[in-house]
Amino acid sequence: MASHNQPNLRIPGPVPLPDDVLAVAGSQMINHRGTEYAEMLDQMSSNLKTVFMTNNDVYFITASGTGAMEAAVVNTISPGDKVLSIIIGVFGERFAEIAEAYGADVDRLNFELGNAADLDAVRENIRKNPHIKAVIFTHNESSTGVSNPLKELCTVIHEESDALILVDAVSSAGGVPIAVDAWGVDVVATASQKSWVSPPGIAMITFSKKAWAAYAKSTMPKYYLDVQQYEDYLKIGQPPFTPCLPAMFTLKIALQSMVDEGIENVFQRHHEIAEHTRKGASSIGLDLLPDPKFASNTVTAIRLPDDVDGKKFLSNVNDNFNVVLGGGQKSLTGKIFRIGHMGWVEKSHIDEALNAASETLNRMTS
Ligand SMILES: Cc1ncc(COP(=O)(O)O)c(C=O)c1O
Fold first, then answer.
1. What is d(CA 79, CA 100) in angstroms, rounded to the nearest whole number?
2. Do 122 and 41 belong together in one domain?
3. pLDDT attached to residue 130
4. 64 CA closest ligand 1 atom index
5. What is the mean pLDDT of residues 163-183?
6. What is the pLDDT of residues 88-133, one digit of tens each?
7. What pTM does this model have?
8. Is 13 left (phi over 0), alpha (psi -120 to 50) or beta?
9. Contact (Cβ atoms closer than 8 angstroms) between residue 135 and residue 112
């Protein structure tokens, strides 16, 4: 447990770390080209495959989540390829920008903020564009607290095309089920500072056989994020480049404890704490941004009353209650606040955050 005087960090990542994990993050460095590292990498790869329900290859990359998204793009597509980008918020737009930065021909399919992607609209779009090379989208849109129906989206995409499916699961993986093989997801990108109860520093990707076939044809320029480098070094139990060891150390512990707990139990725990957050918010008269049907199990987005200064609200909550809430991003700045509940989180953390929000709103509106 963290010490009592530490802030209740309730942003959607980086997540707070319990003291035992913090102690592991502070471990002495090791030789990343030695046997200890090789054993650690082997165990971590096997456990990550369990969490992702996959036999596909998995890779650990020293980067933030955006690095994993970029790895998905540069390893599978080529300049000029047609890419359908399904966008439900800030991070979906980021994925589109990455693909565009590398010269892909990106079509954006935008949905209103607070909504998930509409399956019929996706189907219709793909039917009109049969030559799509890849469909890219966010699983859990942290900026709006919305989870896209990943399984159903994959079904539609597979029914209508041979397109690759590249998914930003930065803020869902590890907290929400993703059956990579059963649903046919080609690349999943995530990052250590989210549900994985670790510091920032390590991005993780899964890479399917179909993604490898696409890799063979991809002419995209790449070096640091070239998945072949990670594959070649994996065979000798090493990272291609010096890894963020503190995050690797904690991820090793986190992955093992997720597998020991049982991944279904981990996902259920996330579902329950999310329900607790949503019910708690409505019991104090606050409205969620999303339709509850698509509300995220890792982050809850709550509307702020029109007459409340969002910036002042966040600083009051911080200053008076020692609770750190997430604000709105881009066009939602000042309009919502967000409570992260991924990784290590107890009901008391949520209750404290909701109480701080409620008290602050009362003071600001009375
Ligand atoms: C859904 C989603 N995608 C991508 C990112 C970007 O990750 P990073 O900041 O680690 O690059 C984030 C970070 O909050 C996220 O929540």
1. 9
2. yes
3. 85
4. 10
5. 98
6. 999 999 999 999 999 999 999 999 999 999 999 999 999 999 899 9
7. 0.97
8. left
9. no
Structural domain of residue 103, as residue ranges? 19-260
Last residue of a domain, one of 260, 286, 312: 260
The atom of ligand 1 lying closest to the CA of 141 is: 1
Identify which of 142, 172, 330 to mutate to test ligand 1's pocket (most ligand atoms within 8 A of the CB): 142
194 C-alpha to center of ligand 1: Å?
9
**Helix, strand or coil, per DSSP, at residue 300:** strand
**What b-and-e string marks burial along 42-72, b requiring 16 or more CB atoms within 10 Å of the CB?**
eebbebbbebbbbebbbbbbbbbbbbbbbbb
Asked if 118 and 223 sit in the same domain, the reply is yes
How far does residue 43's CA lie from ligand 1's centre (Å)? 25
Q: pLDDT at position 1, please?
A: 39
CA 225 → CA 26, 66, 310, distances in Å? 27, 11, 38
Interval 10-46: pLDDT, tens: 999 999 999 999 999 999 999 999 999 999 999 999 9
Encode pLDDT of 286-340 as tens digits.
Answer: 999 999 999 999 999 999 999 999 999 999 999 999 999 999 999 999 999 999 9
Q: Tell me, what DSSP letter sits at residue 332?
A: G
- Which amino acid would we find at residue 115? N
Atom of ligand 1 nearest to the CA of 68: 11
345 alpha carbon – ligand 1 mean position (Å): 19
Q: Report the CATH number that the domain containing residue 252 is assigned in CATH.
A: 3.40.640.10
Distance 65 CA to ligand 1 centre (A): 5
Token digits for 114? 């607070």
Round to whole Å and give the CA distance between 234 and 243: 13
Instruction: Give the sheet arrangement for strand 187-191, strand by strand.
Output: 57-62, 202-207, 187-191, 164-168, 134-138, 82-87, 105-110
Q: Rounded to an integer, what distance in angstroms lies between the CA atom of residue 41 and that of residue 159? A: 36
